[in-house]
TrEMBL record:
Signal peptide residue numbers: 1-20
Species name: Streptomyces aquilus
Keywords per UniProt: Signal
Source taxon at top rank: Bacteria
Protein's name according to its UniProt entry: Peptidase inhibitor family I36 protein
Length: 153
């Protein structure tokens, strides 16, 4: 097991524990219901099927973009879903029906779904299990470490 996968597994376990203990309004802090006020969907009603082995194996891995730590907000062009981890790595994706591998996002960071209203992006863990979805328009803080894949729309 690579160090990144081991770290992701450990952080995923920590995120599960954290989600049960904190209620600070972030995606990882909610264990059940639909989050209408945030645009993040975590309830069983919105659960997506897991990614297939082929989807994970053939996931697109674009070049990681590193942004400045000084950037306060995540600028995201219209039609895109963007995210940034605490380590400064970020992504900007727009192509539908494509499984993307996220660029090693670590810790808490921003998520901005600036796609056309109602467009839903889905996020998955290292094993391809659905974690949450985001309906556009949406801005949120997310604990990125256990999140490995995204389907923009």
């Amino acid at each position: 097991m690579t160090p990144r996968k081991l770290a992701a597994s450990l952080f995923a376990a920590a995120a599960i524990v954290t989600s049960a203990l904190t209620l600070d309004g972030t995606a990882a802090a909610h264990t059940g219901g639909e989050l209408r006020h945030t645009g993040l969907l975590t309830s069983e009603r919105f659960r997506q099927p897991p990614l297939t082995a082929a989807q994970m194996r053939n996931a697109v891995t674009p070049e990681a973009t590193r942004s400045s730590w000084a950037a306060d907000s995540l600028n995201c062009a219209y039609y895109y879903i963007c995210g940034k981890g605490a380590n400064g790595n970020r992504f900007d994706y727009t192509t539908c029906n494509t499984t993307y591998t996220l660029p090693n996002l670590v810790g808490w960071g921003s998520l901005h779904n600036n796609q056309t209203p109602g467009t839903r992006a889905h996020f998955y863990d290292v094993n391809g299990a659905w974690m949450f979805s985001s309906d556009a328009p949406d801005r949120n803080d997310v604990y990125w470490t256990p999140v490995w894949y995204v389907i923009a729309c």
